Amino acid sequence: MSSAFDKLARPLQKWIRQKGWRELRDIQARSIRTICETNADLIVAASTAGGKTEAAFLPLISQVLDEPSGGIGFDLLYIGPLKALITDQAMRLEGICQEAELPVVPWHGDVSQSIKTRALKSPKGILLITPESLEALFIRRGLEIARLFGATRAVVIDELHTVLDSERGVQLRSLLTRLELAIKRPIRRVGLSATLGDMDLAKAYFRPDAANAVELIEADGGEAELRLQLRGYLSGDEDENSPSATDAIAAHLFKHLRGSDNLVFAGARQRVEIYADRLRELCEREHLPQEFYPHHASLSREHRDFVERRLKDPAKPTTAVCTSTLELGIDIGDVTCVAQIGAPFSVAALRQRLGRSGRREGQPAILRQYAVEAPLTTESSFVDRLRLGLIRSIAMIDLLLEGWCEPPKPQALHLSTLVHQILSVIAQRGGASASVVYNVLCRDGPFRKVTTDVFADVLRAIGDPENGLIEQSGSGLLLLGPTGEKLVERYSFYAVFQTPEEFRLVADGRDLGTLPIDNVLSPGMLLIFSGRRWLVQEIHDREKVIVVKPAKAGVPPVFGGDPGEIHDKVIDRMFAVLESSTLPAYMDAASLKMLEEARAHYDQFEFRTENIRVLGEHTSIIATRVRNELSFWWETLGKALNCLEQSDISRRPLLAPVSNKVGFELVATLITAEEDQYCLERTTEFYAS
To answer: Which of 229, 487, 521, 659 would bridge 666 by S-S if both were Cys, CB 3.0 to 4.6 A apart?
Structure first.
C-alpha cells in the first residue's frame, strides 16, 4: 500500500484490507493526500466506477475519526441528485462506516419519519440528502440549521456535472452559501463527476470567489478498449415481408445481449416500454427465462430496486431497458454492453453511459448505436432527407472519440430561481430586510449578475398586490404575502423544477408506478407499462388511482417530458459531417447508405453556400450552425417587423415556426410578398454581417 494508505484511520485501513484491495487507485491516493494535507476544495473527475466515492469519503471519514470536532451537528454532508443514488450510496457508506461506528443517515421522501426524527434530535455522522430535501430543512427548520450543521467539515456533491448549469444547480449553490452564512464559516466542498467539459468553468461554478484555489484530481488514462457500431434502420418500410424498425432492433438486441448484463438506453419512457415489451415477447416465444426489464422514473421504487438487484447478481443475466435513470452513479455492477437507440442530447450523457461498460480488467467497452430514419419518397420533408437523427449520432460519436464533452454554460440571471430563493430566505428567517436578502443571494450567493436595480425591480414585481408573493411591514421587513405563504407551504415548492400531477397504477393491490395526469384514459383501454400489457378496469379521479389487470395487448401511455438542448459544437459538427466525404468505419451498410443520401440532399439544398433556402412563396429553411444564431435571427426579424409596422404597410405580418430541428428551422411566413422580401433581405444582411 502507498503512503496515502498510512494517512487513513485504522478502521478504514481494516475495511480496505477486508475488501482485498492490493493498492489504492491513483485518484484515491491523490485525493487522500489533498484532503489530509490541505484545506482546499477539490473536484474528483473519473469515469463511472472509477472509485470517486471512496476517494472523497475515505480521507474525510478518517479526519472525523482522528480529529473529532467535539461540536454538535452532522460531520459530513453528501448531496446527490436522485433519491435512488442516495439510497445506493448510503448502503456503500454503511459498509465503510460500520467498523468506525459512524452513523449514515439517508434523507429523502422515502425515508421513514422515525429515522429523520432521531437524526434531528442527535445530528452526527454522514447526512445524505437531495437539494430539494435540504431546501425543505431550511424552510421548516430554519432556526435549527446552525445546530444541525455546526460540526459539518465538508460537503460532497455527487454527479457535479448534472447541476452546474441548471436552475437546480443555482438553487444548490444558493443553499450552500446560506449554509455557510448560518454557521458563520466556510465548508470544504468536494465535487464528484464522471464527465466535465471545461474544468476552469467547473471550478468557477464550484467556488466563484476562489476558483483558482480549487484542486482538480482527474483520472489519467486507463480507459478500456472501445468497440462500437452504428446501425441504420428504416421505419415504415413498404416491404410487408420485412419487420418494422422496432422489431428489427429488438431482434438484434435479443440476439446479441441475451445471456449477459447490459443497458439499453431507449430515450423516452414510451420507447422504453415498447422495447421492453418486445424483448419480453421474444423471451416467451423462445421459451427462455425473462431477462429484459424496463427501468424509468415512473415505475415503482420496488420494481426499480428489483431490476438494480438483478443487474448486480452474477447468476441472473439481466438487461435493463432504461431512460437516463441508470445513467448516473447507481451501483449496478459491471455490464457487458451499452446500447443507445437514437442519439442522446449530449456527448457527456453518451460518455457517462458508455462508462458503465468495460469496467473489468481486459474487457472492452461496447457501444451499440441504433439510428431509425424514414424511407424517402417524393413527399419526404427536408428533415427526413437530411437524416438529422443519424447525422447527430455520427457527430456525437466523433466528439466522444475525440474526448470532448459539453462545458458548463455561461451563467444566466436565473430570475425565476431568484424569486424562489427570495421566498425561501424569508420563510427560513421568518422575515428579512431587502438588504439582507440581497447580500445572501446576490452579493454572497450565486446571483452575482443581478444588480441592486434589477433586484429592486424583482421585489417590486413580486410585491405587487396582484401577485401577493411578498409584502413589507411598517419597519421595512419583507414578509411572505398571502400567495407566497400558500406557495411555500406546498411540498412542490422545494424543487425549482415542475413536477406534473400523476395517477398511481395499481394491479392486484400492488403499485406499478405513476402516469402523468394529462393521459386521457377510460375503463377498457389497453396499456403497456412496466414491460407488460394491462387493461384499465377502474379510474378513481379523486384518489388519482388507476386499477388495471393483465391483458394481451396494449400501447404505451404518454409520459411527456422536455427535449434536451444540443450544444453548439454538436450542431457545428453535424454540418461538418454533412459536408465531409469521410465514411466512418464504425457504420454498417444501411447507415452508410443513409449518410450518402443525407449528403446528396444537403448539396441539393445548397447549404454549403447559403444559410436560407426558399421552398415556396411563404416557406423557407434557415440553416443555423450555432444555437444562438437562431435567437439572434428572430430578434433581428422582430426589429424588421417593427420597422414594417411603422411604415406604409398597415397589416402586421405573422410568423410561425413549423418544424424545429437541430441546426435547421422551417419557417412559414404568412405575409405579403413585399413584406416577405423585406424580411429575407434583412435576414440575409444579418448573416452577411
So the answer is: 659
Interhelix angle 568-579/627-645, nearest 10 degrees: 100
Write out pLDDT tens, residues 398-434: 999 998 888 776 667 788 899 999 999 999 999 999 9
CB 141 within 8 A of CB 162: no
**pLDDT over 90 for what percent of the chain?**
49
- Tell which wins on pLDDT, 439 or 518: 439
What are the pLDDT digits (tens) for 495-507? 766 656 788 889 9
Residue 274 clears pLDDT 90, i.e. is over it: yes
Q: Which helix (H) or strand (E) holds 620?
A: strand 619-623
Q: What is the mean pLDDT of residues 237-264?
A: 89
What cell does 685 get? Answer: 444582411
* pLDDT tops 50 at residue 195: yes
For the chain, percent of residues with pLDDT exceeding 70: 84
- 3-state secondary structure string across 433-493: CHHHHHHHHHHCCCCCCCCHHHHHHHHHHHHCCCCCCEEECCCCCEEECHHHHHHHHCHHH
| 415 burial level (CB within 10 Å; 0-12, 13-18, 19+) | middle
- Is the pLDDT at 366 greater than 80, yes or no? yes
d(CA 207, CA 477): 30
pLDDT at 643 over 50: no
State the helix-helix crossing angle for 10-19 and 52-66, rounded to 10 degrees.
150
Query: Dihedral sign, CA of 464, 467, 473, 479?
Result: negative
Cα 28 to chain centroid distance, Å, stands at 26
Strand partners, 371: 232
Neighbours of 128 (CB within 10 A): 28
Q: What grid cell was written down for 245?
A: 424498425
Residue 40, Cβ density class (10 Å: 0-12 exposed, 13-18 middle, ≥19 buried): middle
- Report the distance separating Cα 26 and Cα 417, nearest Å: 39
- Find the radius of gyration of the CA atoms of the chain: 27
Q: What are the backbone dihedrals phi and psi of residue 569, each rounded to the nearest 5 degrees, phi first?
A: -65, -35
- For the residues of 207-269, what is the DSSP string, one character each? -GGGGGG-EEEE--S-PPPEEEEEEEEETT-S-TTSPPHHHHHHHHHHHHHTTS-EEEE-SSH
Contacts with 338 (C-beta within 8 Å, 6 or more apart), sequence order? 262, 263, 265, 353, 354, 356, 357, 365, 366, 367, 368
DSSP for 499-529, please give it.
Answer: ---EEEEEETTEEEEEEETTS---TT-EEEE
In DSSP notation, 38-87 reads ----EEEE--TTSSHHHHHHHHHHHHHHHS---SSS-SEEEE-S-HHHHH
Answer for the pair 214, 41: CB distance below 8 angstroms, yes or no.
yes
Helix (H) or strand (E) holding 192, with range, is: strand 188-193
Cα–Cα nearest to 338, from 265, 280, 406, 391: 265
The three-state secondary structure class of 377 is coil
